[in-house]
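Figure 2 data, in text form.
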Amino acid sequence: MSKKYKLEKVNSEQLWNDSIVTSSKYSLFFSTEYLNLLKIKYHLWHVIQGTEIKAGLLLIVSEDEKNIIANDFIIYSGIVLKDYKNTKIAKKTHQSFQIIEFVSSEITKIYKNICFSLSPEILDIRPFQWLNYHNNKKKYQINIKFTSIINISELRNKNNYEQTNLFQNLDFIRRYNIREAIKENCVVEKTKNIELFVNNYQKMMSNQNIIISKNKYDTMIRIIEYYINNDKGVLLEAKDKNNQVIYTTFYLWHLSKAYYMFGADTQKNISYQSTITNWEAFKYIADNTDIDFIDLEGVNSPKRGWFKLSFGGSLDNYYEIIY
């Protein structure tokens, strides 16, 4: 293993954001703007070679700061490699491997237990697989997860959405749902009624026998309020022909990508409710931002996976790292 790298704690949010924001591996979840809304403990590190920053490392930590832990509001964390735009492919691959190899070993000396999910752009996880490969010492466990990315650029400033490739690539039931919603005079519009949304979300979770803590609801409210008030997010609600709310969804955007965050029904179980609300969210983001891509954030259970992939997006894997 190379000895030329070192980890250096980052105590300046400005330095952190400036050092990694241009990386193609960067996402919303690495932004301190977002992280600070969660009111959680996290550590920021730089991987240094000489005097040069080669990568960033975001780790969500336990209260005692001895363990790296998962968090429901952090989809991706861990390593952010800087881009090497003028470097040949072979050298770039080798350098990235060396950095990940260094990190995979070094963090086991600092933290007792480790759990985080890498960004989909981190493709080479061999260093995690090979730690302690030739001995009987503790090894990493790696789980494969999946998300779906949709390119919405084709929807921008369109009048006839049905003629777009995106609409044509929707699953048959999604196209049917959209047409049905229009026929039934369903209307999707912006709202700031966060309280109603959270109440509906709470009821939906309760009906699934899922207990959500008050802290989690408070965090959801902070996120929604902040991004709506700063014109970086939208809460959309679908109403039926009787002007009754049937579904609500929340999306936010950061730099070059938008993210599906939350959705909740109202137990009315109208077949098109979630389809039309998300479809209108795609259209809204395309028309009101310069964002081209939406990360639907996880297709890791059968029903959720089928629903999100039926919008015709890509299937992208990412890795959960456990030690």
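Caption note: The CA atoms of residues 260 and 296 lie 5 Å apart.
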